[in-house]
Amino acid sequence: MKVLYFHQHFATPNGSGGTRSYEFSRALVARGHHVTMVCGQNSQGGLKLPWDNRRGWYRGDVEGIDVIGLPLAYSNHASIARRTWVFLRFAWRSVGIALRDDYDLLFATSTPLTAAFPGIAMKLCRRGKSFVFEVRDLWPELPRALGMKNPLLLGGMSALEWLAYRASDACIGLSPGIVAGVRRRAKSNHPIALIPNGADLDLFQPGRRADLRLDGVGPTDFVAAFTGAHGIANGLDAVLDAAAVLRKQGRADIKLAFIGDGGVKDRLIERARRESLDNCLFFPPIRKLLLAELTGRLDCGLMVLANVPAFYYGTSPNKFFDYLAAGLPIVNNYPGWLADLINQNGCGVTVAPDAPAAFAAALMALADSPDQCRQMGARARQLAEREFAREKLAAEFVEFLARTHAAR
């Protein structure tokens, strides 16, 4: 089977982004399928591809994956208008590839939602090919929940979402809420698979806290870290609110590390400086290979999002599964399916949203109970091995694509 795979934010372990598409593409290649990956240009991809001057793009082999990198730079620091323009340009060039290339199955993954355009165009113009659409976020539910009010944009997103579901032969959702959302708008009996983000068990492993080297961290400090995007949706002011409580309690031994980048990071740094929150430490994004090594040496992982009901069952953050694989206890500050997993498996602590005192109390309790931390971490690793091993999920992914194509 020849698979044409569209992921604008494709990344390898040499980059600092999520590697789901990389791992799944490798699984396809390992089972004898051919994969052409079409992606954009971003600082987190970790790609170094030769330039094809005739075609006007980068192209090269990445561990058996034929990767086309379109020269469309993206940054989450850019304005909404600038990012939208990059999304549309990527979609336009992707449609051209989808209408021209030789393949059997077209697979597109959001975000952005505009990733669906090549699949929709292919279904309108070419016959005999399959289209599988992977949904990482529900649109326009999340933008609306985060405050977007423009009726034209929201209406356009809703129409594109509906078209994507209806044009596709099958869909994949990354969380229970996403699967339910797709089912509400897709055709009846539409094949929909739940394949969440996974745990890279060989890459993320429990390490020794004594080996941790981070500026501002002492050998006896308790280090809780957030590793991921610093955007509006992440609600990271909640961590600074807890940091303020810890400071008042005199718990300078508890350090809160922020590793990553995003549109609100500069504001968070300025707030920490203004309020003298010296217990908040900020670090740039790092390559996934190094992040895995560092994560295993932390004391705790922070699973934080803005208090938006659409997030409760509608997200599948990479960092959660990284924490599990690294054997970290997790502190989570919003309800939903991830909080349920933590509570059911005893692998961390869940606190109510917008409750800085409870958040701080959870961190203090863990810092004062190293044995409990170790037990929670061991249960986190067991959960990762039992339910979220990347190899298991990749095999489900490959089987679902093959079954979808065979059904045509």
How would you describe this structure in keywords?
408 residues; Rossmann fold; 15 helices; globular
What would your notes on this structure say?
With 408 residues, the chain is of the alpha/beta class. The protein has 2 domains: 2-198 and 389-406, Glycogen Phosphorylase B (Rossmann fold), CATH 3.40.50.2000; 209-387, Glycogen Phosphorylase B (Rossmann fold, 3-Layer(aba) Sandwich). The chain contains 15 helices and 15 strands. The protein has helices spanning 20-30, 80-100, 117-125, 141-145, 151-167, 176-185, 237-248, 265-274, 288-295, 309-312, 318-325, 337-345, 356-367, 370-387, 390-406, and strands at 2-6, 34-42, 51-52, 57-62, 65-74, 105-109, 130-135, 170-173, 192-194, 222-227, 254-259, 280-283, 300-303, 330-332, 348-350. The strands form 2 sheets. It has a 9-stranded mixed β-sheet, with helices on both faces. Strands 12-11-10-13-14-15 form a 6-stranded parallel β-sheet, sandwiched between helices. The longest helix has 21 residues, at 80-100. The chain starts with a strand and ends with a helix. The mean pLDDT is 94.
